[in-house]
Amino acid sequence: MAGPRFRWAWIAYAALLTTAVVIGEFGNVLRGEPVTWLMAANWIVTLALLTATWGYAMQRPIGNATYWRRVFWILLAASALMLVRVAAASTTALVLVLGFMVVLLPAYVAAFRYGFRSHHLWLPRPALEEHERCTD
User: Which of 74, 78, 93, 114 sits at 20 to 30 Å (Cα–Cα) from 39?
Assistant: First the structure.
């Protein structure tokens, strides 16, 4: 089966990232931070990134390749806008966020590979069976 090398590591990364995100966001809500449109948008972007990461790690098609290719570019644009906003706030905040981005880098790699490099996932079922027969 075609797919990521070290699949177990991708699954572990997806599980750890999901756990960290859920704990972090749950903590924000428990502290009484108001849910703003910016926070809601961040949740949507984060959900898309986590879904792509899980889809890649588990090698399961969710939706279609065209959707995930578009989502990848939206994720990059949203991240760039966030970095510009944070950079305008303070240098310290920018350094902190860039540190978080290093932790998120594998998720962006997974999102890219999911949409652009996982062709075997998006094949129709009969074509997929033929593909697997030829690669075994």
Answer: 114
The total domain count for the chain is 1
**Domain limits for position 51:** 7-135
Going by the DSSP 8-state scheme, the letter that residue 99 receives in this structure is: H
Q: Within a domain: residue 109?
A: yes
Cα 94 to Cα 84: distance, rounded to the nearest angstrom: 9
Dist CA 59 CA 72 (whole Å)? 17
SS3 46: helix
Question: 53 near 4, Cβ under 8 Å?
Answer: no
Tell me the H-state helices in 31-118. Answer: 37-58, 65-89, 91-112
Q: Which residue has the tokens 């961040």?
A: 42
pLDDT, one tens digit per residue, over 7-59 is: 999 999 999 999 999 999 999 889 998 989 988 999 999 999 999 999 999 99
pTM: 0.84
